[in-house]
User: Fold this.
Amino acid sequence: MSPEPSHTNPQAKLIYMANQIAKFMESKPHAEGVALLASHINDFWEPRMRRHLFSVIDEGGAGLRPLVLEAADRIKRPVSA
Amino acid sequence: MKDFIIPDRDYGTPAAKSKQMVTLTIDGFDVTVPEGTSIMRAAAEIGISVPKLCATDSVDAFGSCRLCLVEIEGRNGTPASCTTPVAAGLKVTTQNAKLKTLRRGVMELYISDHPLDCLTCSANGDCELQDMAGAVGLRDVRYEAVQTHFRAKDTSGQVNPQYIPRDDSNPYFSYDPQKCIVCSRCVRACEEVQGTFALTIEGRGFDSRVSFGAKTDTAITSDCVSCGACVAACPTATLQEKSIIEIGTPERSVITTCAYCGVGCSFKAELRGDELVRMVPYKHGKANRGHSCVKGRFAYGYASHQDRILNPMIRENITDPWREVSWAEAMEFTAARMKGIIEKHGRHSVGVITSSRCTNEEAYLVQKLTRAVFMNNNTDTCARVCHSPTGYGLGQTLGTSAGTQDFDSVEQTDVVIVIGANPTDGHPVFASRLKKRLRKGAKLIVIDPRRTDMVQSPHIKAAHHLALTPGTNVAVVTALAHVIVTEGLFDEAFIRERCDWDEFQDYAEFAARPENSPESTALLTGVSAEELRAAARLYAKGGNGAIYYGLGVTEHSQGSTTVIGIANLAMMTGNVGRAGVGVNPLRGQNNVQGSCDMGSFPHELPGYRHVKGEGVREIFQKVWGVQIDDEPGLRIPNMLDAAMEGTFKGLYCQGEDILQSDPDTKHVAAGLAAMDCVIVHDLFLNETANYAHVFLPGSTFLEKDGTFTNAERRINRVRKVMAPRNGYADWEITQMLARAMGANWGYTHPSQIMDEIAMTTPSFAGVNYARLEELGSVQWPCNEKAPEGTPLMHVDGFVRGKGKFIHTEYVATDERTGPRFPLLLTTGRILSQYNVGAQTRRTANVAWHTEDLLEIHPHDAEVRGVKDGDYVRLASRSGETSLRAKVTDRVNPGVVYTTFHHPDTQANVITTDYSDWATNCPEYKVTAVQVGLSNGPSEWQQDYAAQAAHSRRIAAAE
Assistant:
């Protein structure tokens, strides 16, 4: 029995999580949604998680919802470890 | 506070609540009491104890024993003082020649049918019948009883049909009918205090007997939930704790707080020497008001269970057997490993998990260990998997991450919504208080996929049961808002004053959309639109409306959204800020509120202040003398992910069994296996310990000082009842580890830790042990503005300023049924077991629940050929396990349900790692599954059992 949502790939999991947040924020007025999505990730995501997210964004952001990409500028880029 | 056993004063009848005062004279003394007070209680107020047997102040007066007779000037006869209310100007006499004669006569009759084996009786020294015989001066008994209830054989040697042998079927107490005086205190306690109605009086006159349900029932086969209320109420040895029968009467008592659920009941631990004789609910406990459940009252035997580990153990690899070592060697080994990891992989490669079963002081030290010694914010707590969405949702909308009320508030509520909670099993003492209010007329709405006991049980029936499909909470809550908005049932004045009117307008526009109407949502929620509309109207306009919710709300992909939706409902109907209303999360573990308050979350320092705040960091940096990381740390699931990718290597886990309690067991196991140093600090070799390199034996709540904070924000003292069997209290062990890692901590008592918490955390500024001693308990915030604490929150305004309405759009979970997995599994608790069962499985509570069962609807069972009691295979996308089926219509077709109390079932092998969007709280409550007949344990269960057995080996001492 193979687990269907593959969480062995850290990037896939973070894409999924970022999109989940986006879905909630999409019901807000657009500008507010963008701002709150970014601050949610800044407030709750450890730098390692944000680093993985940026590695996806930097490669074009495949799989991410548009709101995540729009918020990307406001997400704090972790200082390299 | 170690007292000799002085029983709490029994005033005979409950306190009256009237504000109208009445003055009367009793035995020549004036006394002023509230209207509605009994003469018996009024007398007790001035220290006059009228003899009594059937009266006790936990239940209403009954007037059956005729011992409490008094004379009242100008009135005829000798009325019973327990059932006669006071009136202005009464002149009462409680003792004169006539009354003495009458009382003696009554006692003679009682004693003529009671065995005179006082010396060998288990109630010797603690028997009210004995006391009353003394009080009335009984010197001889003139009657010779021909028929009795206590002689096994009558005088001619024939078997006495009235004799009923002792019922020892309950593991914790005995029912011995020969000692019974049929005062009905037990029956009334079962009805009025517990609300189970398991006991009754059968027969009439001389044939009257206390009976557990039907004649064929025993204590264990009846509806009895073993709460102990009847035992506490019994004046004789009829209902008696078996521990008293075995040990004898206790000689000292210590007031402390139960370590099971979030109700946080106060108990008197009664001891002889350092042997715990019994736990008795403390009458002045403000959470429980003298009541208890089977867990707190009786299930403490795990503290002395043979499985308990008392010496530290270490091992190089998790495949090695454990090696018992000294504390010094354990600390040296652990510190060296952790330092080595930090050196090699950096300071972010290690972290901690604080315990919601340990004290505030202990949780504070564990998060301090990671922040000030490991130098990162990688701290999390089991609240991650239960109430983290509460913290987020209530913080966003109201401004505090906590419930708004005290438990007393339920006494003034008119309409209760219970959503995603099963209080009769999960929070039994609160459930009893709620049921008491419901029996007095409050209305109830239950939102739950299952027909829980709250929906219908003796003398309780929910006005509406919205049996929704698991995973559709947000749709139901938003539909309730839809009805309130579109039918104009909201409280405009409240919203204008307390919230932002424009924001509400925006939310109202959202809620009013046609897709949020109950008619539209019915298709996905399965809840009838008419029923939902009626429920919304009742809540909005039925008077004081209170919402109580549990993990059925939080443990979803949209857990935080539902919490927000609940807060929206309360705000729009004006149901916040006074007694009888509010938003009340029912917390799972005893100190889940406290562990969150203490900064256990990776983004927050104590007092819910984000680590990004420079000012907040500065406060702690000054006290701790270190630089605090300004980035949020890893949450439990993120730690495991990081472990899998090789950047997280060391974990100190205190009093938490993540392998059994966290979702997707295989993922947890793989994450743990990838670490180089897992330190488990617990009472038992729990499931997580199978993957540990260090085992530090913990102490029980009976063995240390500290505080627990319950679901109503009440800080209660935990007091050391006996010395720790493992040698140290848990806070001392964390301190040893910190010192071994180079910290210079030097706490000598938990009160010093609380002082540090008060110094750094504004909502705790007024809390210290002296204050707790003085007030018994306080509810935070406790500071200059509220020196005695805060029973009700948001009274004059919301903590965040204006209450905030936030859109709650329904997003279906990605965990969906389909042809392979057509059923939805939801999980929960039962009364007698507690969470992963580490404690309760090691007590006689297994008499009620020996294994986890799968509840399945008869239709679903029939098409699968499953019969009641069959072994079935339960499979999801994540894994599979086997357990026995229980065919029942408590669940709807399409829904199955199980508990997660037993490690061999491992229900979390089945659950997926979908989680709440805001907090990563796992989606335990929705898993698509298939059920089929099975021959026995699954392959995983067999492998797991083998691995666990292998891992638990302890090398023999040389």
Residues 10-74 of chain A form one domain. Chain A touches chain B through 27 residues (CB under 8 Å).
